[in-house]
Each structure stands twice: as C-alpha cells, then as structure tokens.
Amino acid sequence: MLGEYRIEGRRAADISASVERAVGSGDLEPGQVLPPMRELAEQLGVNPNTVAAAYRTLRERGVIETAGRRGSRVRSKPATTGREYIRVEVPDGVRNVADGNPDRALLPGLAEAFAAAAEQSDLAPVMYGEAAVEPELARLARADLDADGVPDGPVLATSGSLDAIERVLMAHLKPGDAVAVEDPGWGSLLDLAPALGLRPVPVRIDDEGPLPDDVRRALEAGARALIVTDRAQNPTGAAVSATRARALRAVLKKHPETLLIEDDHGHRIVDLPLHPLAGVTHHWAMVRSVAKAYGPDLRLAVLTGDAVTVDRVHGRQRLGPGWVSHLLQRAVVRLWTSGAVDARAVAAAYEWRRDALIDGLAKRGVEAHGRSGMNVWIPVPDETGAVARLLHSGWAVAPGARFRIGAPPAVRITVSNLAPEDVERVVDAVAAAVGPAEVRRYV
C-alpha cells in the first residue's frame, strides 16, 4: 500500500507531519492509498482516535482526501504542491511576460510617503490597545466604496487580498465545505481553498464574469461560498458587466445564506465601472488591495463587509498579528492623498497594451481575451507545446495550468512591460506557436 515508506509518530501531530513530509518529498505519490485508521493505529501502537485526528488534520490541510469505504488517499493535487511551482524558468535573453507584475514605471515612489508616515509615528506612536485601523484610511476607503455603490459596512485592514479572503472563509466555513471559484481563476486562491480543507467547485467565466447558470448549479449543489473577481480578473482580464451583475444578483437572491466574497484588486488600475454584487446575501465581503496600483510589497488590503463577518475577521486577527502596521497604513494614506498615482493614466497604459496585443492576434486568426487589467488570456490547443515554442522564440509566458481546474488549455501573457515595438514581435511569436483558433473556445 505504501511501498517502503513507513508512517511514524506517537502523537497526531507527528503522524500527520510524517505523511506530509513524505508527500512533499515524493515518497508518497498522488493517489496513493493510506492504511485504514485502525490498521495504522495497531502498527504505531496508538489509539485509533489519535490516527483519526492525524487524518483529519491532513484533510483540513488539503494533503489527503477520504472517499468513504475506499479509504483515504493522497490528493491528486495536494495543497503542498502549489500552483506557483507550475512556472517556466526564464533563461538569459528571454523576455518574461509571465510574472503578473505591474509596470514598475507606473508605480509611485515610496520614500516621501514613508518618511511622512514615520514622522507622524514619531509624534504619535501607536501602542497596544489602540484602534486597528487608521481613521483616515478608513474614511478614504469608505468614501471610495460608497462612490462605487458598495453597501455600507465597517472597514478593516489586512495583509493583502489573499490574507483577507482566507480570514473571511475561515470566519464562516468549516473543512469539507464547498466554495464556488472562477475557472480559470487566480492560482493562489485555487491553492488556498484545499489548503483550508475546502472543496473548490469550478465556475466557468467569460469576458463579463462568472456564468450565472454555473453559479446557480454550484449553489444548488451545496456550495456555501462564492468568490468573484469584479475587475481585472486573473488570468483572463474579465470584468463583471452591469447585465452580468444583475443576473448574478438574481441567482444569489435565491441563496441568501451564501457567503459572497468580491475581490476588486483592479481598483485604481481599471477604467471600467464597478458593479458590486453585495447586498443580496446575509454575509458578504469586498476586498481591495493596493498592490497593483502602488506596489506588490505594500502588503495592505482594505476589507469591508457585513458587521458579523468583519467582526469575526477582526477578532481572529487580534489573536494573530493583532493589526496591520499603522506605519504602512499611514504611508498608504499619504499615497492616496498626494495623487501619487493617476488612476486614469495607469488604466489607459494597460488598456492600449492589451488592445494592441488582442487586435494584432485577431488579425492573425488567434483568439485572445483581456477586457481589463494587465493580463491577456490566449486559448491554445496544446498548452505545453505552445509554452515551449514561445520560450524557444524568446518569450516566457505563464502556463494556463496554474490557473485552471477544468477549463480548456491556454497561456497567459502579462502586458505590463510591453513597449509599442514589442507588440508586433509578440503577435508574430504567438501566431507561429499557436495557430488560428478555428476550433478553440473560451469556456
């Protein structure tokens, strides 16, 4: 059953760690069946409840799965094997259009903002017991949310979008619950769900966001949460339109117990209006990160939602990091109020690059998508072959496997650093590597 590998340990934590080490090293392979709990308990000389606790921990971490009488086995894609490892090594001389980073030239300088924040902190140091959120950060964030039609709710600061989403999921769901996720979707989120012991249920998307019928089927089948990217969807660039938002709200209205999480990381880099879905379910959250507009190293996102959700997240945050540094919060306030980023100019810069690439590919008979943000999604018949051929021609693109569950093969190109003279070369390389799109479909 396990070949030569022997699970070790006397405590549940040691047993689970032994299995997880073996999965990480490859000694236990995906799909490999684990011993029945009583059998392993006898081998280790421990109580069966100890093994049961170890297996439960492994399920919650997404390392193993249990299939009733068929027993427990290593997941086919365990959470310990992150999608971030599905990447292309970029040799010298090859252009990297795979990394998903913003254009460095469009990011503001940080020295002045942090100097001002540090001076403020010198005058009024933040001590234990003070409010977790800088008042001016909350005021400015709430004003932006109000302007975009996001329902009223308290504001909290978290350490980035993924931190906020994880905390919201943990505030309402338990291991084994199903959560509806976009497919294709953000690779880190597709890793996070099984790592929390949740079951990701794929929902197909098009240029206007998640397909309502797929969302309806997922919720009717028991999914307890839905995660939607409102704009600049990664990897496809989809943006929820007004028509699609109405259709999705109609679906959610029939499932008011659904936990709705909206990710608007495209705020301040996208010129398309926001069409929020919040307001029709009992529990909801909206997350806005500053990473894309102001820099990935600014690990700060603003979270709002219904009072119960935000209170639960805040309470759990107090027992961990406590709060997001007020020095960082004050620096972000300074960046917001100083006009360090011209949101319209940034959005326009990404837009012309996307449109130039998509239009160029269309003239060559190649289908591509990118309604907003900094990425273009290109369906391909042979993902591995396309990635290899593009690498050979001098372009490193992101394999679609990092972002897919059941969606068809594709590659992602980040347009952030493409100059006008680059676009035609990329179009030629992609057209040669992929070929016309007579039979490929986006969803």
Q: What can you tell me about this protein's structure?
A:
- With 443 residues, this protein is α/β, with parallel strands linked by helices.
- 40% of the residues lie in helices and 14% in strands.
- It contains 15 helices and 15 strands.
- Strand 8, helix 9 and strand 9 form a beta-alpha-beta unit.
- Helix 6 crosses helix 11.
- The protein is globular, with a radius of gyration of 23 Å.
- 45% of the residues are buried.
- The mean pLDDT is 92.
Task: Give a short summary of the structure.
The protein has about 450 residues and is α/β, with parallel strands linked by helices.
Q: Strand arrangement, largest sheet?
A: 4-11-10-9-8-5-6-7
Overall, the morphology is globular
Mean pLDDT: 92
Total beta-strand segments: 15
> How large, in whole angstroms, is the Cα Rg?
23 Å
Please bin the fraction of helical residues.
Answer: 40-55%
Structural class: alpha/beta
How many DSSP H or I helices? 15
Contiguous uncertain segments of 5+ residues: none
Termini separation: 39 Å
Percent strand: 5-15%
Order of helices and strands: HHHEEEHHEHEHEEHEHEEHEHHHEHEEEH
Describe the main β-sheet briefly.
8 strands, mixed
Q: What oligomerization state is this entry in?
A: single chain
